[in-house]
Write a structure and sequence with these properties.
Layout lengths: L6 E4 L5 E3 H17 L4 H10 L7 H10 L4 H8 L6 H11 L5 H15 L15 H6 L6 H10 L3 H25 L3 H29 L10 H17 L5 H16 L6 E4 L7 H16 L3 E6 L2 H15 L5 E4 L8 H9 L4 E5 H9 L3 H6 L6 E6 L9 H14 L3 E5 L26 H7 L3 E11 L1 H15 L1 E5 L3 H15 L6 E5 L5 H16 L4 E5 L14 E4 L3 H8 L11 E8 L8 H16 L9 H13 L1 H6 L3 E2 L4 E2 H4 L4 H11 L14 H7 L8 E4 L4 H11 L4 H7 L3 E4 L1 H9 L3 E3 L6 E3 L4 E2 L3 E2 L12
Parallel strand pairs: 3-8, 4-6, 4-7, 5-6, 7-8, 9-14, 10-12, 10-13, 11-12, 13-14, 17-20
Antiparallel strand pairs: 1-2, 15-16, 17-18, 19-20, 21-22
Helix pairs in contact: 1-2, 1-10, 2-6, 2-9, 2-10, 5-6, 6-9, 6-10, 11-13, 12-13, 20-21, 24-25, 30-31
Amino acid sequence: MMMQPYYAHKTDDGRVQTVHEHCAQVAEIAKSFGDSLSLGNTAYLCGLYHDLGKNQKAFQEYLFQNNDLDAKHLTKISRGKIDHSYAGAKYLYENVPLDSPLAVVTAELLGIVIASHHGLSDCLKSNGEDLFLRRIQKNGGYGEALAEAETSYLGKEKLQQVFDKACNEVAAFQQKVKSIGRNTSFYYGMLARMILSMVIDGDHSDTADFCRGQREPRCKYDETLWKKVQNHLEEKLASFSETDPISRKRRQISDQCLAKAAMVPGIYQLIVPTGGGKTLASLRYALEHAIRYRKERIFYLAPYHSILEQNSEELRKVIQDDSVFLEHHCNVENDSEIYELMTQTWDSPFIATTMVQFLNALFSHKTSAIRRMHALSNSIIIIDEVQSLPVKCLTLFNLALNFLAKFCDATVILCSATQPALDAIKDAPLLYAEPKSLLNGVDASFAEFKRTEVIDRTSPPLSYEEAARMIREQLEKNGNVLVVVNTKQTALALYHQLLLSQQGGQSFALKHLSTNMCPAHREKEIQTIRDTLKNREPLVCISTQLIEAGVDLSFGCVIRSFAGLDSVAQAAGRCNRNGESACKNVYVIRLREESLGKLPEISQARDAAEAVLYETKSGEDLLAPAVMDKFYHRYYQTESQQEVMKYILPEERTTIFDLLSANQRARSAYRETTGKDISAVKRFFCQGFQTAATNFHAIENNTTSVLVPYNDKAKRLIREISFGSSKSVIKAAQKYSIAVYPQTFQRLRRENAVIMQQNSGAWVLDERYYDISVGLRLDAAPMELDMI
């Protein structure tokens, strides 16, 4: 009697796909991804057995009871009543010989990937529980599935053959890890996540392909495309005038990048001074390198939307084909099915996205993020303004880049005028290629592009009144002044101090910028500032650090409240930006009333800068690469800072770095509860993958989003949302929202200044609390405003 087949999917027109057919397809897709990294057999086995647990009557009844077999529903089922994820892991663990340490490692690796394809789990929990082994040894529930594996999947002999090949792949990985000599457990964890990414992508892609009735083609190495875009770029560069010195210097930088594209894949620095043309120079390198080393994708990453949007437009003009260029961030308004698919997979030759999306692909718990990770392999990754990376992520970032470069054939280019000393991080140095710089004579390049002089005026500290007097003096000399401070409280206080000075008769435009203003408000103010500068009208702009995030403005004088030298350099990038004058001054001042108590990163960076200022010789350029390198070494050298870089989790009493590595706290708990070491039971993987991933946030999100009635359009959108609106309306309303920290939000609630809409659940600000000049405004009673 023929057995009833076990089904995975069914379409509206009655087509069905069995579980085995689905698993076989996923295995082939995963293998195609893994082959390029010599992990094809490992990925194949994970794909083949990932849904073995669906071969059981209970799961089939659950499927057909719901009568909805699309991909979204399957995901919901998989997380619901029927736990099917561990069946494949259990079968492999019990049917391959664990007769060597290599076989144990390989079997655990396969089991972890299979068991995690609907969600990460901890191998060893913080209380010492060996969750992985407990579930592997579970006896009930998998009988039918295990029997199906014997009849419909690989026979034991064939399974052994493929498993032996997988062991060989893992052995080759082991040799590479040994050559590095440290952070072994972390790299093994990244290997598991990379293979998991291949399986998740194969799983989702096969489901979508079956429902569509056709297989979508995947991005592959395309030399014709690279050469076509390369020709566009060369034509663009040839059109630039080289009569002025700046253009000639940019061309020299670009030519060096082109020449260095022949160097072997690895991690490199591109240290280019502001205005040096690094976007096109890095693209020129990437295209030539992609042709020489058969790279499949070119990624451009930026820390802020403003930089990403600005440079994406420049890249788009060179590429000249939107079908091969994916711009992936929350500001993109594109609801098409093709765009949705490309953002899910990063399956495009050119991808421009944010640092947050990149970090999420490497460390987030979301399967949508994990799915994208394997697209980073065999690619070129250009990371712009790398100094903007949060300090807490530095150790994870370094090791992830090492993994991508050493094990996944990626080439990484770190772009910045203020390169952080990432190879100085004690426990996780970045493993640069040799030579690490794509440019020769970096110091000479900075001297040639020098457009500002940084002047130390940190002593004596200034009151707000004294600072306002200095600002007015510089306004008289330069016609316009940008003042960048560290907190919103300081920005508001200085703004009010200068408002008072205007009553004394000095006439000038006064502008304020901070994240207390919604994005639409800030955009309008920045455009007004741009127009005022163009018309050469007197102007003072008081801003928090937000203006340093790629905002293309040029002032005759900049005053920077004392912070790290990296921040001083970013502020200096808004001074004499286009070389309007030979050289202009950037003053570093210390504000007596500015408190950095709630901003430890800025406070520690300022301390490091202070030490470097003390050591630096009079007349030495404070923004020169050598001085910047001293600053970063100072900034990174303290033991407390080294610990911060590992991403501390106070409630877990550990770090994400340790959770993804040795997981010492869990090991100790296991020893205390069992009386023996975890290694005694032949366990290799002990990481807390789920705990680490669920606690990872590239940007801390301890704020509440509040809609503000900035203008008539904002008020209209707020009304529409109150009646329930489409995704596009909600997205449009984001431009009229501000992020409010808990202390301020509680005060607003006490004063009934924010109201929650009943239908939408959105918080809306009373318009009396929103000021057209400074944004969110509290009453006159003194209080400590939130820090930026």
